[in-house]
Amino acid sequence: xxxxxxxxxxxxxxxxxxxxxxxxxxxxxxxxxxxxxxxxxxxxxxxxxxxxxxxxxxxxxxxxxxxxxxxxxxxxxxxxxxxxxxxxxxxxxxxxxxxxxxxxxxxxxxxxxxxxxxxxxxxxxxxxxxxxxxxxxxxxxxxxxxxxxxxxxxxxxxxxxxxxxxxxxxxxxxxxxxxxxxxxxxxxxxxxxxxxx
Length: 197
Description:
This protein is an alpha+beta fold. 16% of the residues lie in helices and 27% in strands.
């Protein structure tokens, strides 16, 4: 079986074990990694360009940041372009750029902050809602007002590949232009659910 190495952003140095998980700077410095016999998997904390450079396996799709998250700078986008999985369901990738603040001043180097997951859930909800209700495009003038959020964290979020499952539900339609919605967002690392909101 081929060996797998996960490359994480340099901020996650405490998580890296220099065996199966390495930081980007250590990966770039390393001369003893045989990339022909090792699957290099980009983890969290990498920019889009770094992600593309180090991915050497066809099983890893290059993550495309979602365009419709109401963020003006692409580097601040934390989710990928949503893929529809059911009538009101979507799957979204979670991305984290090491070059950005990421709402943190609490960086342990071991795990991803819960506040970052909340922001990713918010961005995923906006992106999926815009797709679901066809609110994208130059003539779109959509806006969102949050009225509440409940978050449950069951495991630490580590800087490894993470996927988000999201289901939208219409609660009421007040007019043709105004709806009350609910989104249920679940974060998975491997097969394990680590948080839901």
